[in-house]
Amino acid sequence: MTMRAILSSLLLVLPFLAQPAAAQDAAAGERSFNKCRACHQVGESARNMVGPELNGLIGRHSGAVEGYSYSAANKNSGLTWDEATFTDYIKDPRAKIPGTKMIFAGIKNEKEIKDLIAFFKQFDKDGKKL
């Protein structure tokens, strides 16, 4: 292979290597949240349903939503919902918190989880968009 061919190949590949990792996409996360809507709400009018409302989720302690009847496993888990903890949990809720009442097959796709987190991060504890 000639030097010219090597340089040509590099010029084609370099722009792709220089691309940053895909950013979180809150709009895509909102679409993903459709999987959660049967049990959870978010936003200013959110209320507890089958599951607790999810306003201010990131940074909140597990089992902390007032008025929601959590399982003992969830209340006593000692978890704080940061991005890493939520990512592990949403992949397989019953593996992360054995004894949780949450019945959900999980979301395995890393990009989808990141987008869902970006969607949640838009809402403060009162459901107001930041």
Structure description:
There is one protein chain. The chain has 130 residues and is mainly alpha-helical. The chain has one domain (23-120): Cytochrome c-like domain (Cytochrome Bc1 Complex, Chain D, domain 2), CATH 1.10.760. 38% of the residues lie in helices and 0% in strands. It contains six helices and no strands. The protein has helices at 3-17, 26-32, 72-75, 83-91, 93-96, 110-120. α2 crosses α6 (110-120) and α4 (83-91) crosses α6. The longest helix has 15 residues, at 3-17. The radius of gyration is 20 Å and the shape is globular. It starts with a helix and ends in a 10-residue tail after the last helix. The model is unreliable at 9-21 (pLDDT under 50).
Summarize the helices and strands and which ones pair or pack:
Blueprint: H1 3-17, H2 26-32, H3 72-75, H4 83-91, H5 93-96, H6 110-120
Helix pairs in contact: 2-6, 4-6
Describe the structure in brief.
The protein has 130 residues and is an all-alpha fold. It has six helices and no strands.
